[in-house]
Amino acid sequence: MIICVTNWKGGSGKTTTTANIGFALADIYKKKVLLIDNDPQANLTRFFDKQGCSWKKGVSWIEQEKMVFSEKLHYLAANAEMLSMEIEEEDAISYIDKIKQYKEYDYIIIDTTPDIASAFASASFLVADTILIPAEPDQFNVDGMLQTIKQANQVAQLVGKKQEIWLLPTKVNSRYAIDKRTLKLLRKNAAVSGYKCFQAVIHASVKVKEANATALPVYKFKRNCRVSNDYISATGELVRGIK
C-alpha cells in the first residue's frame, strides 16, 4: 500500500504523522516500511539523520538511494537542494515508476510538501493508493483539507485513478468545545462525501514537540503518555483497515 500524507495547510502534523505511524508499523506491527521524504524542508529526514548526511549531493531527486534505518524500516531522504531543481513531467513519471518498483514493502508512506500544486506533490498523488490528510480541528486546517482533497481529485481524474481519502484529526484538545464541534463536523463531512475518518484522534500534547526535538517517535520518547497511545491506536486502525 502506498500512502501519501499531505495537507495544503502547513503545521497540520504531516511529518509527525508519517514518522510516528511509520515507526509503529515497523517496530510494533513488524511490517516492512519505506518512508519517503518528498518535502524540501527535509523534516522527516532529520528523524533518521539530524546532520542530513543521507542526501547525496549532486545526485538528482529521482536518483537518491534508499537508506536502511532498521531491518523493517527504510527511507528516502530529502534536502533543501530540491527547491532549486527544475522538475519536468518526465521526472515525475520516472519517480512514479521508481516507487512502483518497490514491491518488497508492506507500506510506502510519502511525506509531501505543503505546496500541493508542485511537481513533488503531484507525483506523490499519482503514485498513491491512499491520501491521508492530518487535520487540526480549526477552520484554516479544514480549508486546507478541502483544498487538498480538490487537488488530489483533480490529479486522480487526469489518469482515471480512484483513491481512498483518509482524514486523521490531529492536535485535538478535548476540553475545548470548538474542537469537539469541528471534529464532529469533520466526521459528518467525511461520511457524506465518501471519505474515511480515523476513529483515533491525536490529542494536543507538548510530548509531541519534545519527541520531535529528540528525533524520536512519541512512543519511544514517552511510551505511556496519551498521545503515544493515540498514534499506536491510529496505526492499528490503519493496519486493520479504516472503516
Tell me what you see in this structure.
44% of the residues are buried. Helix 1 packs across helix 9 (226-240) and helix 3 (89-100) runs parallel beside helix 4. Helix content is 43%, strand content 15%. With 243 residues, it is of the alpha/beta class. The chain has an 8-stranded mixed β-sheet, with helices on both faces. The mean pLDDT is 85. The chain has helices spanning 14-27, 43-48, 89-100, 119-127, 139-158, 177-193, 206-213, 218-221, 226-240; strands at residues 2-5, 33-38, 67-68, 73-76, 107-112, 130-135, 164-169, 196-197.
Strand content: 5-15%
The overall strand count is 8
- Rounded to an integer in angstroms, the radius of gyration calculated over CA atoms is 17 Å
Average residue pLDDT? 85
- Contiguous runs where pLDDT drops below 50 for at least 5 residues: none
The H-and-E topology, N to C, reads as EHEHEEHEHEHEHEHHH
Tally of helical segments: 9
Helix coverage percent = 40-55%
Cα distance spanning the termini: 16 Å
Based on Cα principal axes, name the global outline. Answer: globular
The assigned structural class equals alpha/beta
Spatial strand order of the main sheet: 3-4-2-5-1-6-7-8
Main sheet? Answer: 8 strands, mixed
